[in-house]
Amino acid sequence: MNISFFRAFVDVAKYKSITRAAELANISQPALSQQIKAMETHLDCTLFERTHKGVVLTEEGEVILKYATRLISCHDKMIKEVENLKHDKNHRINIMATPIVYAYALPCTIHSIKENFESYDLEMKAASSIEIENQIVEGKADIGFIIGTPLDESLYCRPLIKDPYYLVASTELDVPDALTVEALYQYQVLMLKKSQKCRQLLSQQLEKCHVDESRLRIPYELDTTESIKTSTVRGFGLAFLPYMSIKKEVYNKQLKIIKLEGFEFMSEYHLIRKNITDDSMEEHLEIMRYIEDQVDATKC
Question: How far apart are the first and last CA of the chain?
Fold first, then answer.
């Protein structure tokens, strides 16, 4: 039975009039009478009795009224929650970023975005560049910040942040301010795992300045830039780290920058997303463009 049948039934019970209930339901009296008859057939009972005061509920009708009222209330709450959920989804932006951008570029940007787009919920997650691109392609994320460019050329891609990598050491270590490539082999060097894109790009740059990675004293490989930085501050080895992640430690004289012969590496971070052509997504496009414009200007 359609929910409208129950609404009409409740109105008939309330006003004790099929005519009045039909007017409220904007249908004819015969049509409403047919609905009531269909309910009685389905429920195998008589719902109303005719009296000189109008129609009144039978004993069975009283029971049906109790549950019909609850059913209508639950139905209306269900519709409202679904509509609210649709609204929430339409005002939610899922942002994914590499750990460096997530930790050092996004926090201040997000604060600025929330001030200008209060109705939006912003969900953020750190992940590898490859995972971010996959999530964008699958529609599970709206905006991604990756190092380098995406493999999928159909994605919208905009360069946003350039951040130099430096060789650094703890200020507690006795390391010269400049090293030759040959001298570098004397020190332990902490590195990310080879599966990570940052490590792969770094390896390419090291090869260009004639650093033989097989000769580097790499005691172990770590999962995150933060873990490498922490280990470096504690004097466990030297490390190649992006400036965004170390500028505070350099300022506080916990780390010092070591000039390595021939080494220059500028990491480039790009914003990626799907191209939006649907007019209904225009509001999303506005906030996405705002994020693009703000992320570099407001990075912490």
Answer: 59
Which of 40, 58, 86 finishes a domain?
A: 86
Contact 125, 201 (CB under 8 A): no
In tens, the pLDDT along 83-135 reads 756 655 557 788 999 998 988 888 877 777 777 777 778 888 999 898 999 99
* Chain-centre distance for alpha carbon 217: 39
Q: Cα angle vertex 185, ends 179, 189, to 5°?
A: 90
| Same domain (yes/no): 291, 145 | yes
For residues 21 and 194, give the distance between their C-alpha atoms in angstroms, rounded to a whole number: 73
Give pLDDT, residue 179.
96
Residue of 102, 98, 106, 21 lying closest to 65 (CA atoms): 21
Cα–Cα distance for residue pair 86/189, rounded to 1 Å:
50
Out of 24, 51, 86, a domain closes at 86
272 shares its domain with 155: yes
> Is the pTM here over 0.85, yes or no?
no
Structural domains in the chain (count): 3
Same domain, 226 and 273: no
Q: What is the per-residue pLDDT across 210-258, written as a single tens digit (0 to 9) for each?
A: 999 999 999 999 999 999 999 999 999 999 999 999 999 999 999 999 9
Host domain of residue 182? 163-266
Proportion of the chain in helix, strand, coil states, percent, rounded to 5? 50, 25, 25
Is 121 in the same domain as 253? no
